């Protein structure tokens, strides 16, 4: 379907589908054609577009559809851990509810808050907690979205970072966290989270959604 992350990731309560579909439909017409199921490098190359197919310019708008890994032991667990964008796509495109029980969201951006609010709307979910390594003031998500999430019942625990996924019998049971303090500022002016030695503890979860950041989805062909 057309729309990229607007369609696949942003929930309908933030961006009504009727409005979005109307905007997309207004663009597609005699001068704009959409070809689905085509992949750069598999079905065509940039050289073929410019030389063989007669296009005068090529604009790359790939988006960031791949959730970055947490980079901690145990995250390759096959049951209970879901990348944030995969979680949102499953619900927004196919109506699939992947979360259950106690849900933990790692991250503090819009994708993390979207995942939290979507999880809260799923039938078998009992609680949703966002875990963020800095303070709430440093969360990059929109302030109004954070407020809405809190009003809906999402818990936010700040100054904590995941260090290990905890499993039992091949299933997720929680995540080991370490508490942080804010240290020196980085190049962007944000204070760096500094782990506090000896402060590790375990939070119990049935579902863990990793939404720390996204990157373009590329793969060798």
What Rg, in angstroms, do the CA atoms define? 20 Å
Percent range of helical residues = 10-25%
User: Would you tell me the structural class of the helices and strands?
Assistant: alpha/beta
Oligomerization: single chain
Instruction: Tell me the fraction of residues in β-strands, as a range.
Output: 25-35%
Describe the largest sheet: 5 strands, parallel
Query: Strands of the largest sheet, in order across it?
Result: 2-10-3-4-5
What is the end-to-end distance?
A: 23 Å
Order of helices and strands: HHHEEHEHEHEEEEEEE
Shape field:
globular
The total count of strands amounts to: 11
Can you give the mean pLDDT? 93
Continuous helix count? 6
Low-confidence region ranges: none
Brief digest:
The chain contains six helices and eleven strands. The chain is an alpha/beta fold and 221 residues long. The protein has a five-stranded parallel β-sheet. Strands 6, 7, 8 and 9 form a four-stranded antiparallel β-sheet that branches.
Q: What topology emerges from the helices and strands here?
A:
Blueprint: H1 5-8, H2 17-27, H3 46-52, E1 66-67, E2 81-83, H4 84-94, E3 101-106, H5 110-120, E4 125-131, H6 143-152, E5 155-157, E6 160-168, E7 171-185, E8 191-195, E9 201-204, E10 207-210, E11 214-215
